[in-house]
Every structure is written in C-alpha cells, then in structure tokens.
Amino acid sequence: MKFFLASLTLLLGLFTCGHSAEFLNYEKKLSDLPGIAPVFIKTNSLEECSVYCSLSPDCRAFILMSGKCQTFTLLNYNPSKGKHWLYIKNRNYNVNDHGMLSKWCSRGNDIENIDSVTPQFCGNKCRTTSGCVGFAYNTVKRKCWLKNKIVERSEFVNRPVNIMYIRQPRFIRTQPTGFRYYAYKQIVGSDMGKSKVSIEECAQKCKGKSFCRGFTYFDNEGMCQPFMSVRSKISNYHAIAYIRQ
pLDDT tens digit string along 69-125? Predict the structure, then answer.
C-alpha cells in the first residue's frame, strides 16, 4: 500500500466559484459511487478532503458523505444514477508534492514572481529555489509568486482566481506503521515533552508506552512531541501529526 494511502487530514473551508461551486482545481459532478474507495477520513470539511486528494498522486476524485471523506483511485462513475457530489481532480492544476487551497493566498513573503507559466513549472521552480515553501498561482494571469513563508491560516487572503500551493514537509514520505498521519497539523492535548530524535525513533518511543496516543513531528526543529491524550489538531505548516491506529 503506497505511503499516501495511509491517511492525512489537512486544512478547512467551503467556497464558491470556479470549475465547481467550491474549487478551481476540481470538477463537480453528480454520480453514484464510482468504484472502490481505499481511504476513508473522518471529516465534515470539503477542503480537508480536497487537500488530501491533491497530495495523493493516486487520488482521482473524492466524495464527502456522512462525515467521511472517500477518495478514489479509479473512476467508473454513472451520472444517470447520481446520488452524491463527486469532485474529480483537474490534472491541469495538479502539482506533485504540493497541497492545494483553492481561492486562497498566503499574503506577503514573496521570493520571486513568474509570468506566463503553468502550475507545474512553478512547482519545479519552487523545488529548486532555496527557501521556497510554496507558491500562489493566478489561474487567469497564469502567474505565480514563490513564497519563503506560509502565514497562519487565519491570515490567508481570499483570491477567487488563485490557488495556493504548499509544499509537503520533507519528511512526509516517512510513514511509521501503526499510525495515521495528518500533514500540516500538530496535536493539541497532554504532551510528554519534546526531544530531538528522528520520526522512526519518535514512533518507537510512543509505541513503547501504552498511554501514548500519538506525536507531532516538527520539520523546522527536527523535534518529536509525544502525547498522552489528543483533544484536537491545529494547522502548522512545519508539522505532521501521527496518531495511533
């Protein structure tokens, strides 16, 4: 099973406009269930579902139904039997290793702006530019702004024709067994202190204690923070939350 099919939950919101009522980077169709859904994520957030799918190279589409995000790797949908809203990924806007937030922009902190380009070009440029952590893309002007910092989610600016691309933390491909992981999230709860160890060591440390429910790993610090209880998860673009299954 590929690492992206582990499960990760991300950001927040419902919006209007674009290729579908909510998103620029998905097409929305009424459909029956289009096939086998290999991943179920507990959430009531459409955008949480959309960012998960955007980060998963095998994800072609998703449905949000009864508090669960269901993602699909193969599509065989039948619009004539449509009972659910199916969100189909628009590959023109897909950029590997980047999560996407439709119609939002992280204000300021521009490194460089580039005219008349595709999102994929901007993604490659960000990967090879020191300090780049993401970019904003204007789908009308076909212009992008590389960023060296992503502001807090509450400080994002609404841009109806923009997509905000956020690079995955560099450690996101590490998937310790026995944990579900949630990119760009940190745990809120009763913690057991921080230590500077690898993700694998952090996972073993948590597994060695029956009362450990999960841990947060901070990319910018290389720090591990185990938790005895998990009350909630909050956004942090330098963190990934691992919760025991």
Answer: 888 876 666 655 667 888 988 889 989 888 888 998 998 999 999 999 999 999 999
Which amino acid type is present at position 48? E
Q: pLDDT per residue over 223-234, tens digit each?
A: 999 999 999 888
Boundary-marking domain end, from 146, 167, 188: 167
pTM (global) more than 0.90: no
Task: Report the distance separating Cα 34 and Cα 96, nearest Å.
Answer: 24
Distance of CA 206 to the CA centre of its chain: 24
Close Cβ partners of 202 (under 8 Å, ≥ 6 residues apart): 195, 215, 217, 224, 226, 242
> Could you tell me the residue range of the domain that residue 106 belongs to?
98-167
**Mind listing the pLDDT tens digit for each residue in 165-180?**
988 765 555 678 888 8
Question: CB–CB of 226/204 below 8 Å?
Answer: no
Mark 191-216 as b/e (b = at least 16 C-beta within 10 Å).
ebeeeeeebeebbebbeeeeebbbbb
What are the two backbone dihedrals, phi and then psi, of residue 2, each rounded to the nearest 5 degrees?
-70, 155
Other residues' Cβ atoms within 10 Å of the Cβ of residue 113: 14
Q: Assess if residue 12 is contained within a domain.
A: no
